[in-house]
Amino acid sequence: MPEMTKERPKHLALHEIRLPLAGFASILHRVSGAGLFLMLPLLIWLLQLSLGATQDSAAMFAAVTGNWLVKLILLGLLWAFLHHFCMGIRILLIDIHVGVEKQQAHNSAMTVMVVSLALTAILGLKLLGAY
Amino acid sequence: MQRLVVGAGYGLKDWLAQRITGIVMAVFTLIMFAAALGGAMSSREAWQAFMANGFIRFLSFLFIVSLCWHAWVGIRDIWMDYLNSAALRLFLHVMTLLALVGYAGWAIQIIWRL
Hints:
The complex is a heterodimer. Chain A is mostly helical.
């Protein structure tokens, strides 16, 4: 009979696990992708309204994008897109063996976090009509 | 013989698809960003004229197909990673696939009727 009952070490106390920054950024890659997927209908609907030929669609587009809750969601999606974009480039670089070392991987994860948040701030202010 | 129930054939093909579709979307994003800086989004009329351009419609189509394919692989990975029930996984795989095919059709008809 095969030995199937071997005890394996388990440590799933999530509050005790200290995820390295690269791991945190990686989880956010998944979270941001899932968020973008869930909000796809909203984004396609906005595309439809923005390209509609009628006055109705123009008015509807203005009304929807003027809603503060929609603005908040779009701001979140803007961050999700930028984080996913930057993290994707990091993955492609690691695929071609750029930045594989531990310290480099940590630094690139930090760069992804900072750059995506900074771009979210810059483009988000545009989204909110600050300039 | 006990067989493993998995939702799709995955491996190198999906890994590669995820990279190619990602690159297509990244390039499209940079083109759109450059277009925005060039004023393509300065008014509703400018935006509609820009999106009606034949080459941009070709690129938009590639973007939509890439997005849906990319999302399929990514969301399917999430179901595979966190769900133990093969029945629930199969159900959600089918739902995800149906949603994405529908989204693709919806988005493509928006850009192609311009």
